[in-house]
Amino acid sequence: MHLVPRLGSGIPIVARTQEMRQLRAAFARAERAEAGAVLLSGDAGVGKTRLLTALGEYAAGAGALVLTGRCIDVHEGGLPYLPFAEALAPLATTSDPAVTAAVRARPALGRLLPQMQQAEDYPAIEDGQLTASERVSTQRLGPEQDLGQLQLFDAVLGVLTVIAQRRPVVILLEDLHWADGSTRNLLSFLLTRLRTQRLLVVASYREEDVHRRHPLRALLSEVVRLGAVERVEVKPFGAEDARAFVEALADEPIGQDMIADIVSRSEGNPFFVEELLASAKDCRELPAGLAEVLLARVEQLSQITRRVLRVVSVAKDAVAHAALTEISGLDELELDEALREAVQHHVLVIENGFYTFRHALLQEAVYGDLLPGERVRMHAAYAARIRNRTQGRGQDARLAHHSLESKDFVTALAALLRAMDEAEKLGAPGSALRHVEQALSIWDAVPAADRPSDVDELRLLHEASYFASTSGEPERAVAYSRSATEALGPDTGNERAAKVWRRHAEALLSVDGTLDEVLEAIDKAWELVEHTEASAARAWVLATRAGILRLIDRHDEALQCALAAVADARAVGAGGAEAAALVSLGTLADSAGEVEQARERLREAERKARDSGALNGELRALHFLGLSYDDRAEIRSALKYYAKGIQRAKETGLTWSSFGIELRTKHLTLRYVSGDWPEDDDAGRAGRGVSSVVAGRFLGIWAQFVVGRGRFADADKILPSLRQHWSADYSIALASADAAIQLASWRGDHAGAVRQARELIDWLEEVEPAVLGGIRISVHGLTAAVAQAAEARVRGDLATVEAAVEAGEKLLAHGRHCAEHGIPRSVSLGPEALAWLARLEALGACLRGAGDPALWAKAVEAFGYGAVYEQAMCRLQHAKSLLASDGDTALAASELLAAHAVADRLGACPLREAVRELSHRARVELPGEAVAPRRDVVDPLTDRERDVLERVALGRTNRQVGEELYISEKTVSVHLSRVMAKLGASRRAEAVAIAYDRGLLAAPTSSS
Question: Of 732, 727, 816, which Cα lies nearest the Cα of 774?
Answer without folding.
Answer: 816
